[in-house]
Amino acid sequence: MTPKSSTSEFPTADYYDRLRHSVAHIMADAVLQRYPGTKLGVGPTIENGFYYDFQVDNPFTPDDLIEIEKSMQKIIDLDLAFESRAVPRSEAISLLQDQPFKKEIVNDLDQEEEITFYRHGKFDDLCEGPHLQSTGQVPSFKLLSTAGAYWRGDEQRPMLQRIYGTAWESSDQLDSYLQNLEEAQKRDHRKLGRQLDLFSVQDETGPGLILWHPKGARIRTIIEDYMRQEHYSRGYELVYTPHVGKAKLWETSGHLDYYRELMYASMNIEGQEYFLKPMNCPFHIMVYETSKRSYRDLPIRLAELGTVYRYERTGVLHGLMRVRGFTQDDAHIFCRPDQIHEEIIKVLSFTFDLFKTFGFNEFDLMVSTRPKKFVGSVENWDLATESLKTAIEEFQIPYGIDEGGGAFYGPKIDIQIRDAIGRSWQCTTVQFDFNLPDRFDLSYVGSDGQTHRPYMVHRALLGSVERFFGVLLEHYAGSLPLWLAPTQVVIIPIADRHLEYVEKLANDLGKALIRTHIDQRNERMNLKIREAQAQKVPYMLIIGDKEIESNTVSIRQRDGAQLDPMPSEEFLSRVVAEIALRGGNATES
After folding, report:
1. Which of 330, 414, 419, 433 is the catalytic position?
2. 310 carries an active-site annotation
3. To pair with 215 at 20 to 30 A between CA atoms, which of 88, 97, 396, 460?
4. 13-184, which class in CATH?
5. Architecture of domain 194-241+280-475
6. In CATH terms, is domain 489-581 a member of 1.10.10.10?
7. What is the pLDDT of residues 167-193, one digit of tens each?
8. Is 281 a known active-site residue?
9. Which of these is catalytic: 21, 310, 370, 423?
10. Cα dihedral value 82, 88, 93, 99, nearest 10
11. Where are the domains of the chain?
């Protein structure tokens, strides 16, 4: 099955950037009108919307947002023109005497720059634009929520109040977005994690550190076991590496120079400085270096479900999506230049097969090319970049180009998956690296007997197990496909006299490795059914006198559907076959 590439049914990104940027200014104008003396932070556009930060005496309430919206609509109805002008630096500072956060931005700009302002009516704001022609061109908008936000993300700086909003080209599209937003809130993986008892984050343990409960751990184990099997079948070797490494390792890799702010404080062990690992790459390189490599040994594909630790500010932590300790499905491929194209093809094939298995069939791909500052030769960059492009083209999938967007050490492919309600999630990265092979002086002996530098490709398909788990929960709204469900079948006996039959049935299912639970609580049958449905168990088997007499099972599904009774052996065969298919329907609830 060829994966589908998503196409937008909306106007261009440039239009939405202008629209939402304009509405952010209108919102700031309305806030200043209603709360004179407010200090303005920044008001950028974001995916599907915008926000603006304000320093006010009291946090905004939902009622405040309603009143701000009314003031915004009045500004829109006035159809005020957006006008830009560039002023000298000294004049800009004078204009911003009452706006300390804006003055700070100007002071950080190049001394020679002229400063751009945008005005509508009496409202004047530091801004590069672009905007709509006038406020009256705003078709539809909505203020959504508020949150606290430190100025410039620094916990040592003032706390501002952030208002989030959205704007669309029509009221129909706004309504559609708001419906999707409501659906997304229902699918919030944090809510589902609590409801289904899958994981938790607790103050005593620390923010951003996940505690996996038994059912969540079971699902994670199923995912990881599947990943391990797939890696072995595709020619990877799995490794395990330590959670800490000497400072010298991170100095050689460059992490202490370029990544220190995301690394946890060092620890002293027997007089040596060690760090928790933020990445797995240097350890895989160490494995490569344990032997002298020949061109005949390549490619070498080393993979690991490796847990790493990165310092993320408390304000950006978000359930499973942004954490401080997470497990990457990390792999590094060491190969010859003539093997690159085939290796990228194999990685992409692995990626698309993997996501199809998990129920994702729409992708957005982006190739990031050489930036102005880079390491390695132009020749190697061109070969690597062309290998990425031609590999994608073999799958006949459209892709975008991010010119100059590659990291300094190599070009890359980023793959986003689309979920059941159309949201994009960044998962897969395929990244060339011309930096680490040089830093660690990697080599292999070629067919000419000379020493050569191998190509190195970083590759993570799921991205991180934690984040992908959260995406899965939201994609399926918690109703995971049968092969992933922690409990696949709940058997509900109507009375104690039915337990002997039920236990034999559960034993038969267990021998077939079907995850089964007997609910023999002294509760009403309908309550047990409702609770099993709330726990999103795929199948419920109701056993009473009639079923025992006919050696059948009565079957309910979690969506409320009731199947025709069938012999227990037939049900077992049905479930085994369904599990073997490995797949799911994300529209099931």
Report:
1. 330
2. yes
3. 460
4. alpha beta
5. 2-Layer Sandwich (3.30)
6. no
7. 999 999 999 999 999 999 999 999 999
8. yes
9. 310
10. 10
11. 13-184, 194-241+280-475, 489-581
